[in-house]
Amino acid sequence: MSLDKYVSYAAKSFTLPDICVRLRSTLDDPRSSAEDIGELISADPSLTAKVLRLANSSLFRFPSQVESVAKAISVIGGEALYNLVIAETASTAFKRFDTKLINLDKHWYASVYCGMVAKSLAMRLNVRGAERFFVMGILQNLSELVVAKKETKRYQSYLNAETNGLPHVNQLEHFGFTFAQCSGIILENWHLPIGLYYPVTFMNDEAKHKSDVDICVLCLANRITVSQLNKESYADIELFTPEIANTVSLNMEVISNSIEYAEQETAKIVSLIH
Predict the structure, then answer these.
(1) Fewest CB atoms within 10 A around its CB: which of 49, 110, 197, 200?
(2) What secondary structure, in 3-state letters, does 200-212 show?
(3) Radius of gyration of the chain, Cα coordinates, nearest whole angstrom
(4) What is the pTM of this model?
(5) pLDDT digits over 223-261, tens only?
(6) DSSP-assigned states of every residue in 44-64
């Protein structure tokens, strides 16, 4: 089955909630105001509660309590608020593609862990919109669920294949594409901003690592996640390829701090969203 068919299957199986579409449209409208954004979110009490819990979580570490959507917008901005809504929506998408071949709780934990590492690295590099890396980290492996749900036997064959390569290398050999590439195209199909889907799509493209900081950060976060959560197989993998090392200025102390941050905070964030 081609990559396009998995993307089509994902599009037919799950669509973004109307609130995501309307919020994106409001943010892109130069005539809209913070009040317009607040009204959209506040119209959904359940979403409002979840967004405020995230705004007050370790994702942001504000010195004072964020008690309203209006304050959340003034403190973190509309784009950050949008990313929180997408992160909360991701949980619903994951459940839509639940399959017996994948432990959904572990998959979700690993996804949030990757998001926490990616956000931490982006913040230390002063990358614009660091909170979007949390969302990208969560969504970069969404398509593994899609593939496993759509083609059970083929995915089982992938799991059973004996190989010593990194996951994305094994995926490329078995499917002809990586899960990150497929996930990125799904996100583009859902009309998410290019700042979210582009780094995901090209996360494992070494040619892009030579010049794109966003892609390098996400790839590095993924490598860290794989090495930390699957130490039996990947504890000794190379985190910094030459291309990544030449593009981002990070050292092992920063990596260790980001790992510590993710290990301390991931379970808390998982409980807030899942």
Answers:
(1) 49
(2) HHCCCCHHHHCCC
(3) 18
(4) 0.93
(5) 999 999 998 888 888 888 889 999 998 889 999 999 999
(6) -HHHHHHHHHHHTSTTT--SS
Q: For residue 64, is it within any domain?
A: no
Please report whether residue 146 resides in a domain.
yes
Q: Give the pLDDT of residue 49.
A: 86
Q: Is residue 44 part of a domain?
A: no
Number of domains comprising the chain: 1
Alpha helices in the chain (DSSP H): 3-13, 18-28, 34-42, 45-55, 69-76, 78-96, 104-124, 131-139, 142-150, 152-160, 167-175, 179-189, 194-201, 206-209, 213-229, 231-234, 242-247, 252-273
The length of the chain is 274
> Is residue 141 within 8 Å of 132, Cβ to Cβ?
no
Stretches in the chain below the pLDDT threshold 50: none
For residue 181, what are the domain limits?
3-14+93-273
Dihedral pair phi/psi, residue 248, rounded to 5°: -120, 140
- For 131-146, the pLDDT digits (tens) are 899 999 999 999 999 9
Question: What CATH number has the domain bearing residue 107?
Answer: 1.10.3210.10
Question: Would residue 36 count as lying in a domain?
Answer: no
